[in-house]
Amino acid sequence: MSWSPKSWRNRPAAQMPDYPDPEALGRVEARLAAAPPLTKVADIMHLRAQLARVASGRAFLIQGGDCAESFAEFGSDKVRTTFNLLLKMGAILRAGGYGEVVHLARIAGQFAKPRSSPSETIDGVTLPSYRGDAVNGPAFDEASRIPDPRRLLDAHRQAQVTIDLLKAYAAAAYADLPEINRDVGSNEPARPVSLFTSHEALLLNYEQALTRFDEASERWWALSGHMIWIGDRTRQLDGAHVEFASGIANPIGLKCGPNLEPDALLRLIDRLDPDNRPGRLVLIGRFGAANVGDRLPELMRVTLREGRAAIWSIDPMHGNTRSLGGFKTRLVQDIMAEVSAFFEVAAAENVHPGGVHLEMTGADVTECLGGSVKMSEEDLPRRYLTLCDPRLNRTQALDVASTIARLLRQRRALTRSDAA
Ligand code: PEP
Ligand code: CO
Fold this sequence. Notes:
Elements: H1 22-34, H2 41-55, E1 60-65, H3 76-95, E2 101-106, E3 119-122, E4 125-128, H4 150-183, E5 195-200, H5 204-209, E6 211-214, E7 219-222, E8 227-230, H6 240-246, E9 252-256, H7 262-272, E10 281-285, H8 292-305, E11 311-314, E12 322-324, E13 327-329, H9 332-349, E14 353-359, H10 394-419
Parallel strand pairs: 1-2, 1-14, 2-5, 5-8, 8-9, 9-10, 10-11, 11-14
Antiparallel strand pairs: 3-4, 6-7, 12-13
Phosphoenolpyruvate (PEP) binds at residues 67, 114, 231-233, 255, 286, 318.
């Protein structure tokens, strides 16, 4: 059957909410379909061009932001601190001598979460799991947990405001860059800043309503963000999410977890990037520090052997979650270890280590342990604010950026001595 923005509806769709009132959902979809798009085709093409430079080994991608955006936590300060953090991380890499950095935020659409369990039990009471503010509410009561399609409209509105704020900050950052660069010991001249948006394309009713045909390119584009990705739990080859992503022209991310076999990866690449176009596909490994050395080499080997243009990036967050004293947390040392292993495997397999994908916030939270701030288990309750996964705070994210800068410098020295 041929692709259309709604052809995903003929496929099994994992992790999607069960809306009790399909007519209410239909009304919301109609309103979204009539709303102006959140992004422009020209900007998505600009991101594609930048990612093509990552694919050819000339640039590095930093993707990061909240695990889940929330309606309650929203504010212009929140957007500004995330924006500034991404910019500063980029400046750290550039000060380390790494010229080109692509800034991609997990923002303006990251409102829905796949869950390991469909329900949650507290003190003998079982309710449907919280699936992100675009689906239901986090409070543990029956009414909050019923999926409400009107939340899609609130998510869309917040995404629109976020994008407008990001545009304003990008214009201001042009002026602020000399100061950011000075902070990290660089004297490079200010250049215009491009910051792109991304989210997991989990809620396909929302995605379909914001997908538009562009006459000039004669292609369909998901105008809900610049890049969208497919999660590790929704990447079934014949499933709805892969079907939807296969037909749109945006850059696509694909999470690759420890259960993904090399053959299955190649079949997914055939579906998602049949024309092997640089900048189209970003493979985002998320194995855990303990598994990355086992799982990643054979996956990288097949993509290299088959001459695939797809970028390899690493998400060192989702394979490193653990539970401590009733809190979900992550250790900065595990995160650093997975990033370092990613660089080692890439060097051994002769693949460009193209990027990193982080859950982080510009705010001063206490959700992950360790780092130069030496966050300890006793600190966790102090400012544990995430509704979903634990995020690096600002200092911890800058620690990770410094580690990446060092790894990129080492890699460059290695490449130079190979060439000499
Ligand atoms: C996420 O990125 O928040 C996420 C749920 O990741 P994954 O699909 O890799 O588990
Ligand atoms: Co997460």
